[in-house]
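tRNA-specific 2-thiouridylase MnmA, pasting as requested.
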Amino acid sequence: MSAPATELREHAQDIPLNSLGFAKPPAQTRVVVAMSGGVDSSVVAAMLADEGYDVIGVTLQLYDHGAALAKKGACCAGQDIHDARRVAERIGFPHYVLDYENKFRESVIEEFADAYLAGATPVPCIRCNERVKFRDLLETARDLDADCMATGHYIRRMDGPSGAELHMAVDAARDQSYFLFSTTPEQLEFLRFPLGGLASKAETRVLAAKYGLAIADKPDSQDICFVPNGNYASVIEKLRPGAADPGDIVDMDGHVLGTHKGVIHYTIGQRRGLGIGGLGDPLYVVKLDPEKRHVIVGPKSALSTRIVPVTDVNWLGESDFEGEFQIAARIRSTRPPRPAILRATGKNRAEIELLDPEEGVSPGQACVFYGPDSSRVLGGGWITHRRGA
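Structure tokens follow.
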């Protein structure tokens, strides 16, 4: 190595890392911010611009504006695109809107519809992160010569001895690690999550007010962006005509107890709205059989599950994915991680043994793995079917 090259390398080592982890001034660090139009991503963009970074805002148009404009509280609606653009104009950085409607339909919406028709309960926000934001948008960020891409997710990226690690957010109430388990190590090296270390959402809103953002008090989105008012069945019926064909409600022995207006209207663990009252002990949906158009009901005890098979595992641990691991498992975004044993059963398959049985485990949901007594995300997989306690 020549003397000048050696001197440059030594000089680079002497430069302190900026807040995004690069050994150069913020002004020489380009960061693409994925802007949804909400408070969180807007604050990330404003904060990084305020620190002097070369910020480029990008918002994705994921479906038809005409339908979106009539819908409040969705992360990708036309109003949100307008809000993102307004933040960029106020702070003074370039902003682009990319038409990802076809990508979104092919990668997220179509699978969502098919999964529901198959009796599963999908989580499209995970697929959107995995297949659109952290794959296609991330590649766009690279094409823009960005050093990294930042989002408004509440999760932490930490440097570990073997590379970047994924950790739960400081604020457990806002933690979004369940929705980001499929982030690959390569993606994680390029991603940044500036809000993961904040103690509460209130701090984010204080920052929004500090930067003079008009959306400082904008409500959080509650629904899946393409599902108005949480009415999944109506979306499925539009995408798959005939999906709401009626059928029988049967008990676990196959006896007909009543009729239903379509399997897509029911989820595992559901009790209300079955229309079969007066039969003694409360009954719950324990299984869906789309082929026979059966909604199978049973006692609450039938919902108890100890063994959870998963597939399409994304493993973020240091060791090879083989053998047995002590973990904490989260089978729903609204439930805390619980002690479990993970047994690898193939290249990307595993069996999770919950030390305490859980109720309402449903195919199509994610099972996310954490280190025992740790905030670190070790990966996760997709639940394929239930086995009882």
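Note for the archive: The longest helix spans residues 124-143.
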